[in-house]
Amino acid sequence: MYRTHTCGELRPAHIGQTVTLAGWVHRQRDHGGVTFIDLRDRTGLVQVVGDPNLPEVSAIQDARNEWVLQVTGMVRPRPAGAENPNLVTGAIEVAVQKCVVLNPAKPLPLAVNTDETVDENIRLKYRYLDLRRERMYNNIVLRHNVVKFIRDYLSERGFLEIETPMLFKTTPEGARDYLVPSRLQPGTFYALPQSPQQLKQLLMVAGFDRYYQIARCLRDEDLRGDRQPEFTQLDLEMSFVERDDVLAVGEGLFTAMVQEILPGKRLLASPWPRMTYTESMERYGNDKPDLRFGMELHNLSDILAASEFMVFQNVLKNGGVIKCIVAPGCADYTRKEVDELTTFSKEQGAKGLATLALTAEGVKGTAQKFIKPAEVEAIQTRTGAQTSDLVLFIADSKPVANKTLSALRLLFRDRLNLADPNVLAFAWVLDFPMFEYNEEDKKWDAAHHPFTMPKMEDLPKFETDPSQILSDAYDMVLNGYETASGSIRIHRSDIQQKVFQLLGLKDEEIQSKFGHMIEAFQFGAPPHGGMAPGIDRLIMLFAGEPNIREVIAFPKNQAGRDVMADAPSPASEKQLRELHIKLDLPEEK
RNA sequence: GAUCCCGUGGUGUAGCGGCUAACAUGCGGCCCUGUCAAGGCCGAGAUCGCGGGUCCGAAUCCCGUCGGGAUCGCCA
Q1: Interatomic distance A121 CA / B14 C1' (Å)
Q2: Which of A23, A362, A400, A488 could form a disulfide bond with A472, CB atoms 3.0-4.6 angstroms apart?
Q3: Do A443 and A528 fall within a single domain?
């Protein structure tokens, strides 16, 4: 037996007991005679003392940071005045009688016992050391608590956790698949699942009624701070439900979770706000609004319809819009600062940025000479802009204006600290469009996915205007992130056929790619729907971390590499031969 | 595919045209019996990511390249 107790559990109640501990040297303080070590295991720290009056102290004196020790000694109270209120074990210490070095350690490439920032490349290369640090440990524990809460909550409500295959089938829609070559059937490939979407629907056809899975999903696309090539979703599906039944489960789950395991956080509103996709786009410029602060977008196209500003005129003539946001207290921005905002806007796709500074000395800014006093007044009435505020205008096509102002809004959020980091602003965004026109490929794409149920009343629009078809798709958003996405699914094979056809899939293609789905829907498929919250993103937001790598034990870097194991790496000739794969690599420069 | 930012001892930073490259921490040695980021003294450790250029002189300016991050595209 290596230990009788853990480091973090010792209390004055243990005084007088002889205990054996095992752990890492968090810190060592050698006073020549008496030596202190803060011994660490995952439960915490405890001070062990090597006393010259006690035997076997040499190992204590020799020990260095991160050595692994086994220590046996008597728990005793610390001398009066020597208690450490910062440690939960700070009232006591362990007087060492025996110390065994289980394993010494070389000096570490990164310090485990501080929270100072370390280059992320080094952290990832030595991730097993990085994970010893308190911040990472806390994140991993939080992750466990979140997943455990999910399992308990859903199990209590009749959901079954069911595993689905990792080796499945490539699909034509959606993200790029990771392919896995089949050895037994040369020339064919599995695809790793982008999500268990089809399988969970088939589980509904099977009658399981309420299913969930903590499911790994894989998508071969470029990485971002909130996107990893493999990530984890709470995949969830229910039969005989309407949209609000699904939303109620999600809202109930995360509301209870916040109350139970996130005492430092509070919900912005309960019940959660709901808005349509269209409303979210109008008011926030995107479909994942951060509702922790205002600064909404305003459409000024009507007020400025008669503007003398040629830029505005031309945009309106071409079907564009003039929209704005109001940056509070920013009227004193310098020319340089405004230029930076203009550059930022152009990076987002806008052709330019016009500003109106409402200073105490009067109206200034690049748009001042084009906007009449009456128009300024109307703008102030609509937006609530006041003296000392800066109004930022984007005149462009509606998508560009929304995208740019949305990005500016988040820029000011961070610059002016407008969002309370302890608030969780959950909300639902509803009624997404069913299809988006893909200009590049000149075809319709599914906005959510092709199994999403179009609104019944919009079915006639398949023949007239697919862009106007709304769907029973919904997103759960949190603090400016899409944290779940779901829909009521198509359970009728005739509607499913219609969708596939509009997406431009040929009959043979529908059969080869989705024949099993179409067929299944002909054998008594129940109405069903579900959603899939992104575990990594949620935990990132719960933990207040800036990216999801911080809440994943072994994440990949921006180039999709595991820098610790150095993956991906070349396959051997033998492996390739078995798979009947020949490489055709691009010429090296 | 594109844009921007970063790269200086093990780690974190400073220096940004004139240095023998500074500081903290870590590391090694010595001293020290109550510390808890212990303290004191001594020491080792960087050709400033790499290559080229400008200059009397480059960590510092320019170009290229590699590595990392953020963003656009991409992500049903």
Answers
A1: 22
A2: A488
A3: yes
Tell which phi-psi region holds residue A24, choosing left (phi > 0), alpha (psi between -120 and 50) or beta.
beta
Domain boundary among A418, A436, A455: A418
Q: Which nucleotide lies at the shortest CA–C1' distance from A348?
A: B72
Is A558 among the domain residues? no
pLDDT tens string A103-162: 999 999 999 999 889 999 999 999 999 999 999 999 999 999 999 999 999 999 999 999
Report the nearest residue to nucleotide B65, CA vs C1'.
A589
Query: What pLDDT, on a 0 to 100 scale, did the predictor assign at position A505?
Result: 87
Whether residue A156 sits in one domain with residue A38: no
Residue A460 gets which letter from DSSP? T
Query: Which chain B positions come under 7 Å from a protein C-beta?
Result: 1, 3, 10-13, 25-28, 31-39, 66-76
User: Which domain CATH number covers A88?
Assistant: 2.40.50.140
pLDDT of residue A522: 93
Distance between CA atoms of residues A134 and A414, nearest Å: 26
Low-confidence ranges of chain A (pLDDT < 70): 55-56, 587-589
Does residue A126 lie in a domain region?
no
**Model ipTM?**
0.93
As a rounded value in angstroms, the CA-to-C1' distance for A29 and B41 is: 17
Residues A372 and A448 in one domain: no
What pLDDT shows up at residue A59? 83
Half-sphere exposure of residue A166: CA atoms within 13 angstroms, side-chain side:
9
* Cα–Cα dist A482/A228, whole Å: 15
Position A443 scores a pLDDT of 85
Select from A311, A364, A370 the least CA-distant residue to A334. A364
| Confidence (pTM) | 0.95
The two three-digit tokens of residue A339, written as one number: 């230029």
Domain total of chain A? 3
A47 touches strand B (CB under 7 A): yes
Query: Which pLDDT belongs to residue A588?
Result: 53
Q: Where in the sequence is the domain holding A437, given as residue range(s)?
A: 136-274+426-552
**Helix, strand and coil percent figures for chain A, each rounded to 5:** 30, 25, 40
Nucleic strand B contacts from chain A, 258-297, CB < 7 Å: none
A573, with CB counted inside 10 A (0-12, 13-18, 19+), is exposed
Q: Residue A585 has what pLDDT? A: 83
- Whether residue A511 is contained in a domain is answered as yes
Angstrom distance, A516 CA to B24 C1': 65
